[in-house]
Design a protein that fits this description.
- By secondary structure, this protein is α/β, with parallel strands linked by helices.
- The protein has two domains: 138 residues, Aspartate Aminotransferase, domain 1; 255 residues, 3-Layer(aba) Sandwich (Aspartate Aminotransferase, domain 2).
- Helix content is 38%, strand content 15%.
- Helix 7 links the parallel strand 7 and strand 8.
- It binds pyridoxal-5'-phosphate.
- One of its GO terms (molecular function) is pyridoxal phosphate binding.
């Protein structure tokens, strides 16, 4: 008899964005003429930049020739992309990585989920709350999270981030083996200062803990004092794995490409105290379970590091950040308490009048025909907040803000 992995059955069978879609569809059935604007889902809307399109055309043409055809590529990614990553994402920040420390992937989601295969099932994990749900769900699937009660997993240590503590996660009193950090943060849109990040690196070094650092939104950082990579902090090479994504950096949500950094200095212990390097383990894992990202996607990613590519990608990020600025200004002028949005494409808003985040979601949908994301979908500390994304077009964003203004003044 084949036995199912019962840990899957512990997962809540409601998926946040599916629930939102259901509620929006129900509204549309009742109001077929309503033009609903989504500021909910974190997908980009602006087209790929010309440098990327050109690189993809060129790569496709190459693949159509006997000399240029490529089959399976290296599991870690092509050198041309890994070299461009080292040269552009790290060297200018004084970070010297080896090419074999870079693992190109098909986007950050897979690796942020899969990375937990490297650690034993009984490690404790700590997450900021609210949080990108993949970190917890992937640990639930392997049985590491324990059981759920009141929206919290018994073996997960939650580090609340809310307006009261300035969205700064506090180092937990209980020992934690693995800490997930995501900055700039999804969903709150907040960032971490160098000093605060240093505290986490020091904690990990002194307590033999690991940090899984998700930098998927680093390209949105506007303030130069904010770290783009955890490796800007001394000692992080010995305790941190970092995830990058081209999805929000360059509109690659449909193309699929990103990368993970697993430094060679990084080790974890066996039960007998032997130190094991994680880089070769991850390499082994990737060779077994991953056959590389498509050549065309990797050429597309390489193109964003060319002078034209850099300029074009920045223009799109600036475009979204203009939305974020307008959203912050408008929502603040209406008296709402809003956070984030200055170094990230997300705005985190406290729900007024003590309503629940789902209640506000419904009120906004029915009152202004605008969709936001209920904060509780990102964890217990998200209750009482909603998330707005700045990924819309200027026109849709302006229209949504006008509607929110009219609705709020009623
Ligand atoms: N990490 C965070 C924090 C995200 O918000 C997302 C996507 O929304 C991802 C990772 C995954 O990005 P992708 O798999 O598209 O690279």
């Amino acid at each position: 008899m084949a036995l199912v992995n019962e840990h899957f059955l512990k997962l809540p069978n409601n998926y946040l964005f599916a629930d939102i879609a259901k509620k929006v569809n129900a509204f549309k059935v009742m109001h077929p003429k309503a033009d609903v604007i989504s500021m909910g889902i974190g997908d980009v809307t602006q087209p790929l930049c010309p440098a990327v399109i050109e690189a993809m055309h060129k790569a496709a043409d190459e693949m159509g020739t006997a000399e240029g055809f490529r089959g399976y590529g290296p599991e870690q990614g092509y050198d041309f992309l890994r070299e461009a990553i080292l040269k552009n994402d790290f060297l200018p920040r004084g970070i010297h990585l080896d090419i074999d420390e870079i693992f190109v992937n098909d986007g950050a989601k897979s690796d942020t989920g899969n990375i937990q295969e490297l650690i034993r099932w009984d490690n404790s994990i700590g997450v900021t709350d609210p949080i990108y749900p993949v970190y917890i769900d992937s640990n639930v699937m392997i049985g590491r999270a324990g059981t759920v009660e009141d929206g919290k997993w018994s073996n997960v240590i939650y580090m609340h981030c809310n307006a009261e503590n300035g969205f700064v996660p506090q180092i937990p009193k209980r020992r934690v083996d693995v800490i997930y950090l995501c900055y700039p943060n999804n969903p709150t849109g907040m960032v971490i200062t160098r000093e605060e990040l240093r505290k986490w690196v020091n904690y990990a070094l002194h307590n033999d803990a690991l940090i899984f650092y998700d930098a998927a939104y680093q390209a949105y950082i506007q303030d130069d004092s904010i770290p783009h990579s955890i490796y800007e902090i001394r000692g992080a090479r010995k305790c941190a794995i970092e995830f990058h994504s081209y999805s929000k950096t360059a509109g690659f949500t449909g193309i699929r490409c990103g990368y993970t950094v697993v430094p060679k200095d990084l080790t974890a212990a066996t039960l007998t105290g032997e130190r094991i390097a994680l880089n070769p383990l991850w390499y082994r894992r990737q060779c077994t379970k991953f056959n590389g990202t498509s050549y065309i996607s990797q050429r597309a990613a390489e193109a964003i590091y060319t002078p034209e590519g850099k300029q074009q990608v920045k223009a799109t990020i600036d475009y979204y950040m203009q939305n974020a600025k307008k959203m912050l200004t408008t929502l603040r002028s209406l008296g709402y308490e809003v956070y984030g949005g200055e170094n990230a494409p997300y705005i985190w808003m406290r729900v007024p009048d003590g309503n629940s985040s789902w209640q506000f979601f419904e009120n906004l949908l029915y009152g202004a025909n605008v969709v936001c994301t209920p904060g509780v979908g990102f964890g217990p500390a998200g209750e009482g907040y909603v998330r707005f994304t700045a990924f819309g077009s200027h026109e849709k964003t302006d229209e949504a803000l006008d509607r929110i203004t009219t609705w709020s003044k009623k």
